[in-house]
Amino acid sequence: MTHDKDRLLSFYHRMLMIRQFEERVKMMFLEGIMPGTIHQCQGQEASAVGVCFALNEKDVITSTHRPHGHAIARGLSVESLMHELFGKSTGCCKAKGGSMHVGDLDQGMVPAIAIVAGNIPLATGIALSYKMRREPHVAVSFMGDGAINEGAFHEAVNMGAIWKLPVLYVIENNRYAASTSIEKMTALDKLSDRAAGYGIPGVTIDGNDVEAVYEATQAALAGARAGDGPTLLELETYRITGHSRRDPCNYQPPEERELAVKREPLGRFTGKLLEAGLATQAELDEIAAAVETEIDAAVESAKAAPEPLPEDALEDVFA
Amino acid sequence: MSNEPRTLMYREALNEALMEEMRRDDTVFVMGEGIAERGGSYKVTAGLLAEFGEKRVIDTPLAEASFTGAGIGAALTGMRPVVELLFIDFALLTLDQVINQAAKLKFMTGGQGNVPFVMRTQGGTGNGVAAQHSQSLEAIFYHAPGLNVVMPSCPHDAKGLLKTAVRHNDPVIFIEHKLLYMNEGPVPTDDYLIPFGQGDIKRRGSDVTLIAWSNMIPRSLTAADKLAAEGINVEVVDPRTLVPLDKELILDSVRRTEHVVIVQEAVRRGGVASDIASIIQAEAFDYLDAPIEIVAGLNTQIPFNLTLEAACVPQEDDIIAAVKRAVYA
C-alpha cells in the first residue's frame, strides 16, 4: 500500500467518527430522547470513507435513507448532523429533513433521498449537467443492494451508460434489503455483473477494506473524468446493526453475523495499523478521545439548540 | 421593432418560447421521447435540434421516471431543463421523482438549492385515444405542495407562461391540451412574460362568473356567446395557473356577479373545481346568490368511442345548462 500515515490515520479517524456517532445515536434513540426513526450503518464505514475520501471537493454524492456515514465521510460536521437528528433549527436541514434527508450541497452532498433508488436518476442528471457544462466533476450515487431491483436503477444506469456520463454507481451490498436476504432477490452472485447489461464496467471488491475501496473508487473516477462513462462498483459489506430502529436482526443467521462481526472494517483496520506498525495504540487512543469529545459537544449543543417555530413549516416550500 | 401581434398556433407559440429561452440562456435544455429528430408528437420542439444541437436537445430512452429524475438532478446543479412527457398519463410513471424529489428537495433541506425544472406534458380528451392517453390529471399535481401548475388556454398565454416557467426557480408542471395545439390566436412580436398567479378575464360579463382553464376556455367562450344571445352575460375567468391561484381575480368577479359556475374537464371527484368552490364559499359566501355549479367530467374512465368520450366530459350544452341553473336558481 502506498498511502502515507496521515491518510491512513484520517481513514481511521473518520471511520471511528461514524461508528461512534452511530452508537451514540442508537443509545439516545433507545433512551427515547431522539425523535423519528433511524437507519444506521455500523459495519459499513469503510465504503463511505473509502469512496468519499477519493472525491474532489466539487464532486457530489447522493445518498439513501441510511445516510449518516456518507454525510460524515463527505465532511459534514457531527454537530450539524446531531442538531438535525434532534430536530433543531440549527441542523443541516433546519429540522425539515431529519435523519433520512441529511446533506449539504455546499459540502458536496445532495440531501439524502429516502425513496429507494430515487437518488440514482438524480445523480445521473447531476452528471449530465457536469458533462453539458464541461466541468470536471463526478456524481456518485450510493445505493443499497435492495435498490438494484427498482426500475429507477435500470433506467438511470442505462442513461448514464449511453451518454457516457461522469457518474459512479456504488452498491453497498450489506446482503439485506431491510430484512430480505439478497439471495431471495437476485440470481446473481456478483451484483456488479449487472453492469454488462448496460455495457459499462462492473467491479466487485471487499467493501470492508477501506484502502481497497479508496483505490477502486480512484480508478473508477479516473475513467469517469476521462469521459469513459460510469462504473458500477459493488462493495461487499455487512450491517452489524438493525435495519431501522429497534430491529433485532432475527433474519441474520447467528453464524453469518458472527463471521461478519469478525470482518467488520474498523476492527480489521485497527489491527492492520497496529500490526504493521503504522500507528501506536497511544496514537489511536488519542484519536478516539478527540472523537468522543467532539460527539459529546455535538450532543450537548444539540440538546440546547432552539426548536424551529411552527411558522417555519411554510418556509422553503413553494405552496 | 413593431409589436403588431401575429397569428400563431398554440404549438408554434410554445415552440417560439423554447427557442427564445434557449437562445437567451445556455443552461436551458430540452429532453424527452422523440423530441429531437422527430420534433415531438405535436411539433412543439421542431427545429430545436437544428439550432441548438444534440447536447441541448436530447432524445431519451423510454424511461420516464429516470429522464425526469435526471432533469431534476441537472436542475439542482445549475441547469434549466424542460422535460417533455408525451402524455400526462405517462407522467404517472414519474410521480416519485416529481412529488417526492422535485417538490420536496428545497423544503426537506431547509432551503438548500433550487429546482428550476419544467415538465411539459399534455392531457385531455378529444381525439379518441382512450383511457390511458386522455386523462386530465392536474389535481394530482395541484394536491402536492411545492409544484407550480400551469394550464394555458390560448397561444398568447402558452408562450408567455412557458417563458416564465423556464425562468422560474421552483418546479413547474406545464400542462398543455392536445386539442389546443392547432388553435390560432394573436401573439405579440416583442418579448413578454406572464407572471404566475395572474389570471385573465377572457370575456367580461355581469351576470355570472364562469371559471375554467385549458381547453374548457374555448368551449366556455362559445357557450357564453350563445348565452349572450339569450341575454345572459357570462364573465369567463381563466386562472391560467392553478398553483399559484389568482384568488383575488376570482373573488372580485364573484362579488360583482354573485353567481358562479366552474368548468373542469377532469373527473368531478377530488378535482380542482371543488377546491376553488370551497375557497369561494369560505371567502365570498355572503355574495353568493345561488349554489356554486360545478360542471366536470364524469367519475369514470375515458372511453375510446367518440360519442361515449364526449359524454364523459363537459360539452357546450352542459355548460349552458349549468349557467342557467346558476342564474335562474
Name its key features.
heterodimer, A: 319 residues, alpha/beta, Rossmann fold, 5-stranded parallel sheet, two-stranded antiparallel sheet, globular, B: 329 residues, 2 domains, 7-stranded mixed sheet, 5-stranded mixed sheet, 13 helices, 20% strand
Describe this structure in words.
- The complex is a heterodimer of chains A (319) and B (329).
- Chain A is of the alpha/beta class and 319 residues long.
- Chain A has one domain: Thiamin diphosphate (ThDP)-binding fold, Pyr/PP domains (Rossmann fold, 3-Layer(aba) Sandwich), CATH 3.40.50.970.
- Chain A has helices at 5-31, 45-52, 68-74, 78-85, 119-132, 151-162, 210-225, 254-262, 265-275, 281-304; strands at 60-62, 139-144, 167-173, 176-177, 180-181, 202-206, 231-236.
- Chain A has a five-stranded parallel beta sheet with strand order 1-2-3-7-6, with helices on both faces. Chain A has a two-stranded antiparallel ribbon with strand order 4-5.
- In chain A, helix 1 (5-31) packs across helix 2 and helix 1 (5-31) packs antiparallel against helix 3.
- Chain B contains 13 helices and 14 strands.
- Chain B is globular and about 60 Å long.
- In chain B, helix 2 links the parallel strand 2 (28-32) and strand 3.
- In chain B, helix 3 packs parallel to helix 5 and helix 9 (216-229) crosses helix 13 (316-328).
- Chain B has two domains: 6-187, 3-Layer(aba) Sandwich (Rossmann fold); 200-327, Rossmann fold.
- By secondary structure, chain B is an alpha/beta fold.
- The mean pLDDT of chain B is 96.
- Helices cover 38% and strands 20% of the residues of chain B.
- The A-B interface holds A 60, 62, 91-97, 101, 103-106, 110-111, 113, 115, 118, 120-130, 132-133, 139, 151-152, 154-156, 158-159, 162, 315-319 and B 27, 29, 55-56, 60-61, 63, 65-79, 81, 96-97, 100-101, 105-113, 145-148, 170-171, 243-244.
